[in-house]
Structure formats: C-alpha cells, structure tokens
Amino acid sequence: SPEIMLGHPFTEAIDMWSLDCIAAAMYLGALLYPGLGEYEMIRYIMETQGQLPDTMLNHGCKTPQFFKRNVDSTTSVWKLKTPEEYHKETGKQPMENRFWKFTSLDGLLHTRPISNPNSADKIAEMADARMFVDMLKAMLPNPLIDYISELDGLILQEDIIFLGQEFLIPPRVGSVSLN
C-alpha cells in the first residue's frame, strides 16, 4: 500500500490494498504494480490512480525519498521525483518492468478477449468484467483523496456488499494491553 511505502504505521488500509492487488493479479495473470522497488510501485500507482493526497504525503516519514516539494502547483504540495532525480539521489536506476501499462483501472477491461464474441454470453461476460473493475475502483478510490477516511467508513460498517452477495464482518475485538 502507498501508506506503508511512505512510512505510515500498519493499519487495515493495507489489507484493502492487498486484496485489491491480489484480485487484479488473478484477473490479469500479472501484477498490477510490479515495481522492483517502492519508487516504481508508487509511480505506477500514481500513473493509474492519480496524485496521492497531500494528507497522506504530509505524514509519511519516507515521503521525501520519493517526492519533492512542489512550489509551483496550486493543487498539490508534493510532486513525484522523476526517474532521473530519483537515480541521482539514490544511485538506484528505476526499471520499467510492466507487462500492462494503464492510465486508469478501466484499462483492465481491454486486457482479456471475450471468450466467444458471437455468443449470447458476450454481454454477460462484459458486464462481469465491468463489475469487477468497478469493485477494484471502489476499493482503491481514484483519485486517492480522502482515502483513509473512506476506508475507515468501509471497515467500520457491519457488513459489506460484494457483487450482490452480503458477507458479515466479525465484530472487532478491542486492543489488549500487555501492562
């Protein structure tokens, strides 16, 4: 998850990212964000989902490793370093290793051929693919503005609707102190 790569503490948010990335990998047969390092993964996430919110970047202890202050922008305080800037500062050369390059999650709709374009199932298969991509987009909001607060609202609900099926989430157990 971007939070972990930026140095935030571990939270439930990483579980949503993990679930989303695993589901996308199963659909694609390849990793959605296959970076060899954190810089590449952050770059791929941003190319697909847009600028990470300043609220996330401002609190990341590792944000300055990947971003620089953006004094010219009226929309974001931070700007991702270019691959050249990152290489110059770290000595690590970012590598392009994606099989699929997406500008949005909708790009997933164009990665798999419909099994039988002449069949009556074509419409259903296309609808299933659209529902899957919509589910991924709901799990990883685009852009990621207010990502943490949206995720907190989802996690605190008593149930989740998943492709028309209702699954109950077990109640949370309070934290335990070792003192």
From TrEMBL:
Q: Does the keyword Kinase apply?
A: yes
Q: Which InterPro entries match?
A: Kinase-like_dom_sf (IPR011009), Ser_Thr_dual-spec_kinase (IPR050494)
Tell me the keywords, alphabetical order.
ATP-binding, Kinase, Nucleotide-binding, Serine/threonine-protein kinase, Transferase
Which Gene3D superfamilies does UniProt cross-reference here?
Answer: Transferase(Phosphotransferase) domain 1
- In Gene Ontology terms, what is one molecular function of this protein? ATP binding
Q: Which GO terms describe its cellular component?
A: cytoplasm; nucleus
Q: What protein am I looking at?
A: Uncharacterized protein
